[in-house]
Records
---
Amino acid sequence: MRFLSETSSDGVCEQLFLLDDIPGALWTPEGAACTRPLIVLGHGGGQHKKAPDVLDLARRCVTECGFAVVAVDVPGHGDRPVDEDYHRIATENQARVEAGADPAPLIAAFQALVARRTVPEWRTVLDAVQRLDHVGAGPVGYWGVSLGCGLGVPFVAAEPRIGAAVLGLGGALASGAHAALITVPVLFLVQWDDERVPRGQGLALFDAFASADKTLHANPGKHGDMPAFERGSALRFFSRHLA
Amino acid sequence: MRFLSETSSDGVCEQLFLLDDIPGALWTPEGAACTRPLIVLGHGGGQHKKAPDVLDLARRCVTECGFAVVAVDVPGHGDRPVDEDYHRIATENQARVEAGADPAPLIAAFQALVARRTVPEWRTVLDAVQRLDHVGAGPVGYWGVSLGCGLGVPFVAAEPRIGAAVLGLGGALASGAHAALITVPVLFLVQWDDERVPRGQGLALFDAFASADKTLHANPGKHGDMPAFERGSALRFFSRHLA
């Protein structure tokens, strides 16, 4: 793990790093020196580790809860090179959707393909970050919606260190099988008029989680319209389960 | 409006009152002297104005938000006499359900009948309470689930002073038509395994609210199993919209 930069503002220390060839960002309280809860943030499709909603949530986790937060670029996103295979498949999928194909099974297949790489990558990141003195091996949560849900559900299912997860904007077709392996507390976010994930698919994914403690929040609007106050819900959820 | 008693504990003043023949309770911050937001609480079936969940929510609204809260007994509940008509209908309905009838249309018809009385009663209560110096004509919210939703939806639809409402454990069959008249912000609570309100009925009621700003929270469990943390969600919702 190689640190590229370290900056601080308003009580939040941001360290950019490379782990093997994975570019990431770690946020911690300024002056932090001991073990604390850690949130792994998975960004959305076409976004990156410092997309505005990721950054806002990361900073709030640090300032309001004292947590550490880590996010890395998904292959083909942010500071990572274009992946020729993914790029070709994504371009083909877009053409099919424009020609009238149902996007849900295409998204599901694509996310399953990418998850085969990101699940082991994110586990390696978790190993490395938890070895740092100012993070340590404390409780771990995961937050990710849209692509961050498609990649997050198999990650949470595979990784026993994750103790609570905020997921959403995903469907049962893509993630139902892995969701049935998840038993930790889940906050699941649905956009009621999601044009990419049919409502029934989203509700069926909520149904599929094996967690006894799970809560669904639904709000009107399309895939990209999730209200900012749901970031506050995520903070309270993590505080309840990890702090 | 005749006050029967006044007691204070832990910063909360509780006044029991009679308005005509309606017994009610008013909670305000100890020493309150000016206008503040007011929450009208509607209790559940078989409960009363001081049922434990009503009382807990009322006290939290006062201590955490500085609001006033009022609740009155629904006819046939709490300190009100048994209403022969309601009692007969409820007994007949129970026998029908035990004989295998679908409870949803029976509940819908019964709540519509009772609402014809409670809507004008609650509007009178609101008039009276807002004339008190320590309540005043500030913003008003409504909270009610189960029977408190069945009676609350027509109340919120009819009463322009209500600026935000927490409703839940109700279905579209009973309340859909009135819900379509509601445009204020709504937080709607669903129990995912509700044995009294079919899931599709609950989701359809959420769908029916005309409010641009509405949020659904769903949790696993039966009709009576709503988690206590949803009271915290209600407080934050009212703070966001009324404070």
---
Amino acid sequence: MLVHHLYSGGKDSSLAAWILTRLGYEVELVTISFGLLDNWRYARETAETLGFRHRVVYLPGEILENAAKMAIKDGHPNNAIQFIHERALEYVASMPEVERISDGTRRDDRVPLLDLPKARSLEDRFGVAYIRPLLGLGYKTIRELTERLFVVEIRESEQLKKADYEVELRHLLREKGIDPLTIFPKSHYQSRVLGWREQL
Amino acid sequence: MLVHHLYSGGKDSSLAAWILTRLGYEVELVTISFGLLDNWRYARETAETLGFRHRVVYLPGEILENAAKMAIKDGHPNNAIQFIHERALEYVASMPEVERISDGTRRDDRVPLLDLPKARSLEDRFGVAYIRPLLGLGYKTIRELTERLFVVEIRESEQLKKADYEVELRHLLREKGIDPLTIFPKSHYQSRVLGWREQL
């Protein structure tokens, strides 16, 4: 039972990956890149430290271009992040070897998050099972599990070495002469997992 | 980390209980009864077979009375089942020893299911964490896990020896001279777990 799990190296996607192994799944971590930066290396590093298989899947650059346009038009990144995540799920779900896909999206996330019709549509269009181990967990539960499991580094998004969509999106905005801080929230803390605290 | 998990003996609530143990929680199964029947015994039997601690929590009979009125007025049981489940969660969440509550509700369930504002409200009002291990899983995933884990008996609801709200609700309707088959769907298959197939 192999699952392809979208992975950024953050605590949510790491916790979700751990839960999948606890349910008896074989997990292959997948980090999305648009080939603009090599920040997927941070996810690979964490994946290796945690003992997971890892691969990089390159998405067409026009997806990031469209996301950047959205973010500029909206003046905030939410729709752009949602757009990238939906395309990433579709891309991975369409790969012939993929039967199950997964991510670390949570109940309390605003974006990225697929509503029920979109989740079912993803499963139906691509013939996959879409598994979200954190969807039924609130912030208290996620906190108690991650604190027990992982050594986590929490930093302001601009400084953190991480591998989520946001990093390449910020980079592309800068290339277009737009300061990401006019679009992304000023103080936005994100996390990166450095290793196991206790493996259960 | 003790969780009080609402438990009927069916495959969904059994799968959710198993997942909780895999996440490192200590699980106490809780079966709701209105004291009308002793069908909670089927849940206890399954709980013992699976090796879980189990207790019965009695809810005030007026909740079942109100639910029966709803079902009669509506001509279908959905609102009544939702009403009972919300009261059951509140009742268990309000018990002083309870810090975490859980149930086996699923992404694809219509009822009972708490939407996000209701789930957060439950957590906030009672100071508990509300954990739904199956919320992020679709029917394919639930099927593959339950088939691997459990020996399951599937029967028409009227015949199955089980311990969910429906049984006492049907009984109360009969006592009021109302045929439950005029309210519940004619062919409604439900499940009861008989034991482990393979414990992982």
